[in-house]
Structures are given as structure tokens and as C-alpha cells.
Design brief:
This protein has four helices and four strands. By secondary structure, it is of the alpha/beta class. Helix 3 links the parallel strand 3 and strand 4. Helix 2 runs parallel beside helix 3 and helix 3 packs parallel to helix 4. The longest helix has 16 residues.
């Protein structure tokens, strides 16, 4: 499986990428708004979003546009019959998506 790990430079993402590399092809990516295009070009079968606010918990540290772009790309794939699973390593807002900033709410609806 071709796995894209977004946020692989962080503590959790680094561990996810290292463990996944034991049985999968892994591309470690930084979260940017260009991620959706990169994923389409490189043919990731699945995506792990491990980019987060870090230990400080500051939402401003998360690139919301990148998360929306990745989510939109995976929804587009799903609608075209090619599933693109998204695993988000977080629990923030799962119990109250309507109270989250728009970029988190978009991800929680997928």
C-alpha cells in the first residue's frame, strides 16, 4: 500500500511513518495547501493526517487549508469510485464538530 503521512516531522507523525514503513511504501509529507495535488500525482492509497497543534495545543499551528484540501481530494476520489481512506490522528472535536473551526468541522464530516 502507498501511504502518505502528513505531519511526519512531528512526534506522532514520525512514529506513524516509521511503523508503517515496515510493511508499506511511505511518503512523509509536510502539511501544505498543495498536499491534495501531491496526493493525486503520487497515487497514495491512504492518508494519515498526523499534523496537529503539538504539545502546546494551539489551533493556529494547524494548516486548516491543507486539511480541507486533502479532505476534498479524498472525497472526490470516493465519489469517482476510488476510495481514499483518511485516518486523522486526533480526537479534538469529534464529540462536538459544530463547535470546531471550519477546517476541523470539514474533516470531521468525512
Amino acid at each position: 500500500m502507498n501511504l502518505a503521512v502528513i505531519g511526519a516531522a512531528g512526534g506522532v507523525g514520525c512514529r506513524v511513518a516509521a511503523q508503517a514503513a515496515a510493511g508499506h511504501q511511505v511518503r512523509a509529507l509536510a502539511p501544505t495547501t498543495e498536499q491534495a495535488d501531491m496526493l493525486a500525482l503520487h497515487g497514495a492509497d491512504a492518508v494519515v493526517w498526523a499534523a496537529g497543534a503539538g504539545a502546546g495545543g494551539h489551533l493556529q499551528a494547524i494548516d486548516g487549508d491543507a486539511l480541507i484540501a486533502v479532505t476534498d481530494e479524498l472525497v472526490r476520489r470516493r465519489l469517482s469510485g476510488s476510495p481514499g481512506p483518511l485516518v486523522v490522528v486526533s480526537s479534538m472535536g469529534v464529540d462536538r464538530p459544530e463547535q470546531m473551526p471550519p477546517f476541523l468541522a470539514a474533516m470531521l464530516r468525512v
